[in-house]
Design the sequence.
């Protein structure tokens, strides 16, 4: 029998992440013996070994790593289904629109104003997040739609509508020698020994190689730029969070960035469709919505 229960998956994920039955049992709020028995039963049912057990804890087998990846996705999907169902049952709820903090500020302002002026339009609640978090918020049901940027954001599996295309700017310390120029090239920003480009985490949480500082949040990045520790290249509309200690210069040969509005393809919400139409109208690109 191949059916897996969500309880079994939660148990396995806890053990796989803690790599210790005792810590996993504490996290789950259950005793250790029944947890150990449940994982053993799961292994027997699947006919595979998921864990290598040793005196100090456990390690994942290759098979266990596969189940960990699949179990996380399955639990996320179950949680998203519950959140979307609860949200669908509340006709007065606002639409939740996720957006990277500091990005698309003018578009967001115009969109909120436009929705407020449309008779009967569902109100919009903006959920600001950090770089790359919009996709997760859409997938887990925390957001109904999201403003995202191609080619930087993870758009896999979403329906999208292009809204606008823009260039990029370099944000650097106002006191730096480059700040006196009118514009820069990618070669300029990539070859500044005393001002390495900041590094954001990849989707798997790892960081690309390089001398620049590892950053997690926009506020952390803004302060590092002001302190003369790093620079970055971002879409021109994302400079809303620019500090007085920053200078923004066009990067003339940087790839163009497309702002899109994204939503789940399984969504049949007329309110979401209306939001997409409003955003497209503001940007002059009316979509053909199904």
Sequence:
């Amino acid at each position: 029998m191949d059916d897996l229960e969500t309880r079994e998956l939660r148990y396995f994920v806890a053990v796989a992440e803690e790599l210790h039955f005792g810590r996993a049992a504490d996290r789950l709020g259950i005793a250790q013996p029944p947890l150990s028995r449940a994982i053993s039963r799961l292994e027997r049912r699947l006919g595979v070994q998921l864990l290598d057990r040793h005196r100090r804890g456990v390690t994942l087998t290759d098979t266990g790593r596969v189940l960990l990846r699949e179990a996380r996705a399955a639990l996320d999907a179950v949680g998203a289904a519950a959140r979307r169902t609860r949200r669908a049952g509340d006709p007065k709820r606002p639409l939740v629109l996720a957006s990277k903090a500091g990005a698309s500020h003018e578009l967001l302002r115009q969109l909120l104003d436009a929705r407020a002026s449309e008779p009967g339009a569902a109100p919009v609640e903006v959920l600001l997040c950090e770089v790359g978090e919009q996709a997760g918020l859409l997938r887990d049901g925390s957001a109904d739609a999201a403003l995202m940027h191609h080619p930087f954001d993870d758009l896999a599996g979403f329906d999208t509508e292009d809204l606008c295309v823009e260039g990029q700017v370099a944000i650097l310390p106002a006191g730096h020698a480059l700040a006196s120029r009118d514009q820069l090239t990618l070669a300029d920003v990539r070859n500044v020994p005393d001002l390495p480009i900041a590094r954001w985490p990849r989707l798997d949480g790892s960081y690309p190689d390089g001398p620049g500082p590892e950053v997690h949040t926009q506020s952390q990045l803004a302060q590092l730029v002001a302190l003369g520790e790093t620079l970055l290249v971002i879409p021109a509309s994302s400079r809303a969070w620019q500090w007085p200690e920053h200078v923004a210069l066009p990067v003339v040969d940087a790839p163009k960035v497309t702002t899109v509005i994204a939503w789940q393809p399984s969504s049949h919400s007329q309110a979401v469709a209306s939001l997409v139409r409003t955003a497209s109208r503001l940007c002059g690109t009316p979509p053909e919505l199904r």
Remarks:
- The two ends are 39 Å apart (CA to CA).
- The first helix runs from residue 6 to 18.
- The longest strand covers residues 159-166.
- Residues 90-166+257-282 form a domain with the D-Maltodextrin-Binding Protein; domain 2 fold (CATH 3.40.190.10).
